[in-house]
Specification:
It is a single chain. The protein has 172 residues and is mainly alpha-helical. It has a domain of 54 residues. Helices cover 36% and strands 0% of the residues. The chain is built from six helices and no strands. 8% of the residues are buried. The model has no long low-confidence stretch (mean pLDDT 76).
């Protein structure tokens, strides 16, 4: 009962104009400030960034820059159009599916896809359309577009992991 009277009191104040109803309405139409919309990286319980979710990679751009394009971080508009036309001609819906960097590398040397073998009845029809971009590698730093060599410490850790026979025995 008390809540009903309280609500009716607020409603009466709003209707009488005693409460600044217009400023409330204006506040809703005013765009939020940058500080109010600042995005915060979601974190896991241990503090690391939470990268869970649905990721899509329909880019035809290879992870590392192919040696054929060494020193060429970006394709020109004309080169990009040539790649798109060549891809449409070589990899139609009935062509074998091509995965990973195989599509881009095959376009560079006009060959059949570089993969482990024919996919049989798994045609490109089942793959999403790939998009082409001016970058010649997804890696932009270092400037050569290639993965840097592993550090000596990482090489030791890798060798130690390979020697492990049971997960419990690994102390890396």
């Amino acid at each position: 009962m008390r809540a009903d009277r309280l609500f009716m009191g607020w409603l009466a104040l709003l209707a009488s104009g005693a409460l600044p109803a217009q400023s409330v309405a204006q506040a809703r139409t005013t765009p939020p400030t940058r500080a109010e919309t600042a995005w915060v990286v979601p974190r896991l319980a241990d503090g690391r960034p939470d990268l869970q979710g649905t990721w899509e990679n329909n880019s035809a751009t290879p992870l590392e820059r192919p040696r054929e394009l060494a020193g060429t971080p970006r394709l020109s508009d004309m080169q990009l159009e040539q790649m798109k036309r060549k891809a449409a001609a070589m990899f139609g819906a009935e062509a074998d599916a091509v995965f990973g960097d195989g599509l881009y590398l095959a376009l560079l040397d006009d060959s059949r896809p570089r993969q482990l073998g024919a996919t049989g009845t798994y045609s490109a029809n089942w793959l999403p359309n790939r998009y082409f971009e001016h970058r010649t590698s997804l890696i932009e730093s270092p400037a050569d577009g290639r993965l840097p060599a592993i550090t000596p410490e990482a090489a030791q850790n890798r060798a130690r992991r390979r020697r492990c026979t049971a997960l419990a025995a690994c102390r890396i």
